[in-house]
Amino acid sequence: MKKGEIVGIAGVAGNGQRELTEAIYGLRKVSSGRILLGNTDVTHMPIRRRLEIGISYIPQERVRYGVIRSFSILENILLDRFEEDMFSIKRVPLLKLLDYNSISKYTEELVRRYEIVTPHIREKAGALSGGNIQRLILARELERLPKILIAEEPTAGLDIKATEYVRQKLLDLKASGVGILLISSDLTEIFQLSDVIAVMYGGEIVGVFKPEEISYEDIGLYMTGVSKMPRDEVLRRWELY
Fold first, then answer.
1. Domain presence at residue 144
2. What is the rounded distance in angstroms from the CA atom of residue 240 to the CA atom of residue 192?
3. Distances (CA, A) of 181 to 6, 56, 79, 108, 215
4. Are 23 and 30 in contact (CB under 8 A)?
5. Please, which residues have CB within 8 angstroms of residue 162's CB and are 6 or more apart in sequence?
6. Cys staple from 110: which of 3, 90, 139, 218, with CB 3.0 to 4.6 Å?
7. Considering the domain boundaries, does residue 103 fall inside one?
C-alpha cells in the first residue's frame, strides 16, 4: 500500500479478512512473515506503539469494539490521549493534572466538525445512534493524523446519509496522503473507492486488480474460489500497483 492510496479487500466474510486486520493492528500474533510501515517493522510491536507511529483502526463491530458504551463522548474521544501535553497541566516535573477546559473544548470542536448529534459531550456513547457512533470513531481515529487507516466494514448498517459521509471522509483522508486498507463486503463500495482491489479466499490473496480491469461478475468467481491467480502473478501485481 502506498501513501494516498485505498486498497480494497474483497471477499466473502470468513475468508481471513478479520485475521488480516487484527494482525496489522496488533490484536493477533503473527506466526510468519513481517508487517512493515515504511521501513519500520511493526510485526511484534504492541498496539500502543502502533498507534504512536500512525496506525488507526475502524472496527467492524463499532458498538462492541469501537467505543466503551458506558463512557461519555469526551472519554471515548480521548481514550488513549489523556497523557498528551495538550490535555494536561504540569504541576511538578513528574505530575500532570488533566486540563478539563482544553479537553472539553477539543471534544466540542470534534463534535461540531464531525457532525455528531448529541445533547452534550458528557452523553454516554451507548446512547448514540449507529451513525453517530461511527462519526465518533472517525473523529477519534482520524484526528490522530494516521499514516495508515484500517477501515473494516465502515458503512455496514448505516443509512444513506451516514454512508455517504463516511465514504467522503475516506476519500478526503486519501487525498491528504494517508494509505487506507478498506475491508468491505459491499462490492459497490470496493469498486467506487479503491485504487487497487485484492481478493481474499481461504485466508490468502487470490487476485489483485485495478477496478477497471475486472467486472463484478468476474470478481465474484475469485471471491468464491472458482478462479485463482497464480501466486507469482499476485506478487508481481502487488509490487506493480
1. yes
2. 21
3. 6, 10, 23, 29, 21
4. yes
5. 130, 131, 134, 135, 155
6. 139
7. yes
Residue pair 196/8 in contact (Cβ under 8 Å)? The answer is yes
pLDDT tens column, 78-90: 888 877 878 887 7
Mean pLDDT of 42-68: 93
Cα–Cα distance for residue pair 41/52, rounded to 1 Å: 14
Query: And the C-alpha cell for 6?
Result: 485505498
Distances (CA, A) of 176 to 3, 4, 5, 71, 147: 9, 7, 10, 31, 10
- pTM for this predicted structure: 0.91
Q: List pLDDT tens digits, range 94-133.
A: 677 888 889 999 999 999 999 999 999 999 999 999 999 9
Grid coordinates representing 221 are 468467481
| Residue entry with cell 472496527 | 59
Q: Name the residue range of residue 52's domain.
A: 6-240
pLDDT digits (tens, 9 = 90+) for 202-223: 999 999 999 999 999 999 999 9
- How many domains, in total, are found in the chain? 1
- Of the chain, the percentage scoring pLDDT greater than 70 comes to 98
- Rounded Cα–Cα distance for residues 117 and 128 (Å): 8
Is 217 part of any domain? yes
What local confidence, expressed as pLDDT, does residue 10 receive? 96
Residue 1 lies in a domain: no
Give the CATH number of the domain where residue 12 resides.
3.40.50.300
Which stretches within the chain are classed as H helix? 17-25, 47-53, 73-77, 100-113, 130-142, 160-175, 187-193, 216-223, 231-240
